[in-house]
Amino acid sequence: MIGSPKQRELLALLAAHAPLVVSTDRIVDALWADGGDHLSSLRFHISKLRDALDPDRNDDVIVTQPPGYRLGVGAESVDAHRFADLVATSEKLRGDDLREALPLLEEALGLWRGAPYTEFEYAEWARQEVTAL
Q1: Does a structural domain hold residue 12?
Q2: Any idea what DSSP says for residue 112?
Q3: pTM of the model
Q4: Where residue 28 sits, what CATH number does that domain have?
Q5: What's the rounded Cα separation, in Å, for the pair 103 and 90?
Q6: What's the first-to-final CA gap in the chain, in angstroms?
Q7: What CA–CA distance (Å, rounded) separates 79 from 69?
């Protein structure tokens, strides 16, 4: 179980950008709006997330990679990315063959579970992700 709300938000932010690196500056700006120096807090939350997600510390779940961190999964492992890819592929097929597009749209809808990022609706990064979906 992911303990604190800040750790859940950090995980959601990394997942939203997987498999890309999210810079430490961007993470700090997204998670702490006061503009303070929160680098040590970020490192603490990264460590706690690693403990929760990767107790053996194989360091392949949350990867440190300059200039920040990335979730060690492909975009296809994140439902929001899979949803967007399925919809985009179906849109390309719609002009050619609706019968091929329909199963993709059904699969995309099967991934949808309620409102996305509701726990983080106050966060600007989450509002941007919701708009994109």
Answers
A1: yes
A2: -
A3: 0.87
A4: 1.10.10.10
A5: 9
A6: 26
A7: 20
> How many domains does the chain contain in total?
2
For the chain, helix, strand, coil in percent to 5 are 60, 10, 30
Mean pLDDT value across residues 98-111: 91
Which tokens go with 105?
Answer: 């749209």
Burial 60-74 (b: 16+ CB within 10 A, else e): ebbeeeeebbbbbbe
Asked if the model's pLDDT at residue 119 lies above 90, the reply is yes
| C-beta separation of 47 from 38 below 8 A | no
CB proximity list for 26: less than 8 A, separation 6 or greater: 68
Which residue is listed with tokens 């179906």? 90
Residues 9 and 64 in one domain: yes
Q: Would you put residue 86 in left (φ > 0), alpha (ψ -120 to 50) or beta?
A: alpha
Angle CA 61–65–71, to nearest 5 = 30
Does the pLDDT value for residue 12 go beyond 80?
yes
